[in-house]
Design brief:
Length: about 325
Amino acid sequence: MDKLISRYTEQLAEALEIGKGIKIKKHKKKINKIYVAGIGGSGIGADFVAAIIRKECKVPYLVGKGYDIPSYVDGNTLAIVSSYSGNTEETIASFKKMEKTGAKIVVISSGGKLIAAAKRKGYDYVEVPGNWPSPRACLGYSVVGQLAVLTELEIISDKSLKSINKSIKLLDKEKAAIKREAKKVAKKLHNKIPVIYSESRTEPVALRLKQQINENSKALCWHNVIPEMNHNELVGWKDKDKQFVALFLRNKDDFKRNSVRMDINQKIIKKCTPNIINLYSKGGDMVERMMYFVHLGDWISWYLCELRGQDSIEVHAIDYLKKELSKI
């Protein structure tokens, strides 16, 4: 896993090159909404894209993470099917339902049943390299692939892709510093339960870190966002318990009221636990800052895994679940 994390900027660069070659056929109807079917490591990519394009995209960009699709998916919908393996049960079920709607279907995958179906039926597809052993390590392919599709269809400009390119330079420059900080944070999280908070517009970075701690570090944690948690979860910080660590992911351009909220939240949380961490992103725009947090968070999860003496690659629980499901 450490080798896969080390190759993150290499993956982003490769994804950008793949994106340059994407050719998507124009849809016969006007696209007035976008629906992405994806789950797990592929679904989180759609969450990132939704946050990245929020201020530019003029049509709704909606993400589904299950077997079903909403009734609004129709002939005016761009339906993106995202599954790294191409064999994800839930995403294939959504794909089959999409086919009946007349939506403009685009598949993003490394192969499997989805790429085979796309080639057989003439759907547009983006085929990414399939030599990565862990789908959660392939976030770059998912994010850049979706951005490239939207750019090719002129739904957004190439601004986001240019920012991805800038983030590569940023992460390469900050590589050593990121790993040093990740080690420090991992030590503070060891034998603790992390509670991750971010501003609502950058929730994907908090969710990503939670998922990476779950899978790489084999540990439980949770996340929430500001200001939503100020209307419910904040009241839950009532009892003194040093097993919790409140980890705040912050940006220099966070909405001022949310930044103030974070400061006040910490005064309340300190009454329950002394373990509070503030992490600040680096980068010139939101895309760069989110990519920075992705890389920092991935390293945190790996170093925490090492401290816990776990195997960062294995997912025996998920494998068992899939095996049992296959019997039914």
